[in-house]
Amino acid sequence: MNEIKPIRVLIADDNASMRKVIRTFVEDISNVEICAVARDGAEALESARTLKPDVLILDVAMPRLNGVEVASLIKKSLPRAKVILFTMYEDSVGKTLAKSAGVDVILAKTRGISALTEKINAVIEEG
User: Can you name the CATH fold of 7-126?
Assistant: First the structure.
């Protein structure tokens, strides 16, 4: 009998409270496991290269590397990974730039954590 492999998720946000909230809700999604939580873009990139997550949830404004930079770099080594930018700066994020960096979804934090879990489920279903 084949066991279903869980979807591995990496969370990166420079705000500790936001990381905790995201993690709490993502852990409640069935067949999902958190493989890493990062405090900045460089840590996210290093963890992603090592752990090879299926989905990355990235803030845009992070120290060392921003979320768009992380997406661009990680898509070169993990082209099938899904990237969700979960940001306070949705309107100021260059959507064309983000899409060209390999971002799959740009979502405003003001839309709430339930919108994030919906987007995670959607990118998982897309495969």
Answer: Rossmann fold (3.40.50)
